[in-house]
Amino acid sequence: MGNIFDDLNPEQAAAVKCTEGPLLILAGAGSGKTRVITYRIAHLLQNKDNPCPPWRILAMTFTNKAAAQMRERVNKLAGPASLSVWISTYHSFCARLLRLEAEHIGLSKDFTIYDDTDSKKITEICLKELNFDVEKFKPSVICEMISSAKDKLLDPESYGVHAMTTPESIKKIAADVYELYQKKLKESNAVDFGDLLRYSVDLFKNSNTVLEKYQERFKYIMIDEYQDTNYAQYILTKLLAGKYKNICVVGDDDQAIYSWRGADIRNIMEFERDYPKTTVVYLEQNYRSTKSILDLAGKLIHNNHHRKPKKLWTNLPQGDSVVYTEFPNEFDEARAVADKIRAFIENEGCSLSEFAVFYRTNAQSRIFEETFTRFGIPFIVVGSQRFYERAEVKDILGYLKLINNPLDDLSFRRVINTPARGIGRATVLSIEKNAVEKNLSLYESAKDMHTGGLLKKAERFVKLIDSMIAEKNNMDASEISRIIIEETGYIRILEEQNNIESRSRIENIQELVSAIVDFEASADDKKLASFLENIALISDVDVWDDNKEFVTLITLHLAKGLEFPCVFLTGLEEGLFPVGSSAYTMDSLEEERRLCYVGITRAKKYLYMSGAAQRRIYGQIRWSIPSRFVKEIGLKPEPEVHREIFKGDSLIEASVEHDVPAGPGAASHFYKGLRVKHRDFGEGKVLEVSGSGDDLKVIVQFDAGFWKKLLVKYANLERL
Ligand code: ATP
Ligand code: MG
Fold it and tell me: Which one of 3.30.530.20, 1.10.486.10, 1.10.10.10, 3.40.50.2300 gives the CATH number of domain 387-536?
């Protein structure tokens, strides 16, 4: 093995060697921040003067996949000691910590982790129980409010106090729901994602002994993508690093894209204030992208005001120019992308995995999926293959979760009559009633009623669950799952149905068993609890295999940290990207711009940017002008831009034209920002003016929420 410092530039090497004391690495995209963390771990393990035991190192990554990659690389650099380093996401770290210390926070070690779907379900149950109208107060909205309270470490009580002081009545409802929600989770011996962090912080705050144990243990702490940490993660880190303060955070304020999920950019901006003796390292050489791509990224991000200025340069060649094309509609856009990929593959022998298509919203993947299918281009949509969300998979998992944690009421509800065993709504109500009267979990209540002769239909069910509970520590998870599938007759029933749907469901169940077997082959702990924790924390990017021969379709948010030789950045239209329409605040617009910056900087060699003049959204055709980001980076559309012109609501002209800059002059009586009124469309604001005389056109953003391009001559617009 060579010297690891041979692979690093002097600044990177300095950061790797600087192991003692707080270290902030603030640097632009592709400058080797993640690489520095990886090499720093290897260096700590191999340091001749003072090698660090692997279990004293903690590294936090943004996804489980990034954690696995980092471990693999450390393993290559420093050998199998890497296996004992804690490299994980914050959530996985907390889950592991809480399992070890469960009794300190009033949970049993078998606690269940509820995913977002489970959390929404419980929120809905709580809303109904509190007699709120779930049509009016959407469970998903309330659930998000609870989750964001947790990210700020607010417990139900403090959130309640906070809600009292606001005029927003929905917050008061959320506060009531939060209290009941939390009670239900506690009774079910369950935690949600937010609790993982909140309880970990509580654990450290409530017990000095426990805190000191972990402060002592994790002598070296490293955090990737620090710009996207939230308040709870910030506090947790601060507690952990409290003794040695050997904390190294890396990040890029220009890539902060998760503020809508509670991330707080101040964590990185004010790091030096929190840790006064911080060494700051700037990395300025980008190793990922060609000059063309990097220049463009720089131009774009320059438009943001809230940022630390950075230099970023590359030794890589100029490369091909970045191309921007405005297509007539989204189908043409998708076809052009498919054509381009095909041409690359045929002419240059590229592999499919070198291509990625980025878009702002999930819904945009559909057109690409359909087009690629027609073109015979294999693709994978990151985030869509929610295997563990499928009903049949959730059913079997429901059994496994109940066996692991018999207090888990949500899983009990899922499986008590699945497959059907004649236990209807009325019986479930009586089980619930008995549970409340005797202060039992639903499963205990069913068992109690069965023992008392009141629930004959549940005999096999209770016997099966009980016997599995007794065996769960002696059997592997795969064995338990096989017994469940056999004893409940789940597959047998599907076999009897014998149609395409049922056959695919059988395959999914078989796939689940394979997933469990795979897990057992690689995990140290093969127990049921360990498998369940692993899948509860799986994220969309984690299940994506980047080595397979597929084109990757992915949202910009999920593309963070990744890189591809060729990127198609699509849907660059005002209203779509930046998303939303008129109601930008400066902050939200800057975040959209950062997202665009993240997209651009994923590309290594080729970047194609595009948008569509017309696109169907929510079933309505919508007209768009090119995203302001395109203008900011000074890209001109490819010459051929087809636009169709409307008279009132009907198409009067389909033309080929160039973008004409807006502003006064020929069009002085119509100008950007002017308020106008149209007989059918109502009031709106002029966004762009082009052409002159009979050809004078305006793009109006109507208050009703859509855009129109109108020929002034016919549109009969009233100036307001
Ligand atoms: P991002 O901001 O996107 O998270 P990053 O700063 O974490 O990027 P890395 O992913 O660590 O950057 O590195 C970007 C690319 O450059 C990777 O392919 C990495 O292997 C390569 N790279 C980084 N430093 C060097 C170096 N000194 N020599 C050669 N290649 C390097
Ligand atoms: Mg990185």
Answer: 1.10.486.10
Same CATH fold assignment for domains 2-102+198-285 and 297-385+545-632: yes
From 163-177, 213-227, 373-387, 597-611, the region with the lowest mean pLDDT: 373-387
Extents of the domains making up the chain: 2-102+198-285, 112-188, 297-385+545-632, 387-536, 642-719
d(CA 42, CA 47): 8
pLDDT tops 60 at residue 582: no
Each residue's pLDDT tens digit, 260-317: 888 999 999 999 999 999 999 999 999 999 999 999 999 999 999 988 888 899 999 9
With 0-12 / 13-18 / 19 or more C-beta atoms within 10 angstroms meaning exposed / middle / buried, residue 328 is middle
Give the CA distances from residue 606 to residues 19, 330, 430, 644, in Å, rounded to whole numbers and listed in that order.
Answer: 37, 21, 64, 30
CATH of domain 2-102+198-285: 3.40.50.300
Q: Which residues pair with 359 in a beta bridge?
A: 555
- Pocket probe for ligand 1: among 5, 26, 34, the residue whose CB has the most ligand atoms within 8 Å is 34
CA of 62 to the centre of ligand 2 (A): 9
How does pLDDT run across 621-644, given as a tens digit for each residue?
788 889 999 999 988 765 444 444
Give the CATH architecture of domain 112-188.
Orthogonal Bundle (1.10)
Query: Rounded to 5, what percent of the chain is helix, strand, coil?
Result: 50, 15, 30
Which residue in 685, 718, 694, 695 sits closest to 708, CA to CA? 685
Q: Give the residue, by CA position, lying nearest to ligand 1 atom 27.
A: 8
Helices and strands, counts by H and E, the chain: 28, 24
**What pLDDT does residue 649 have?**
43
Residue 672 has pLDDT above 90, yes or no: no
pTM: 0.80
Active site residues: 33-34, 224-225, 255, 602
The token pair at 297 is 């990224």
Please give the number of the atom of ligand 1 that sits closest to the Cα of 283: 6
Instruction: Report the atom number in ligand 1 closest to the C-alpha of 27.
Output: 6
- Which class would CATH give 297-385+545-632? alpha beta
Closest by CA to 356, choosing from 605, 29, 595, is: 605
Q: Is the dihedral of CA 36, 37, 40, 42 positive or negative?
A: negative
For a ligand 1 pocket test, name from 7, 72, 250, 287 the mutation site with the most ligand atoms within 8 angstroms of its C-beta.
Answer: 287
Q: Which residues surround ligand 2, an ion (CB under 5 A)?
A: 33-34, 561
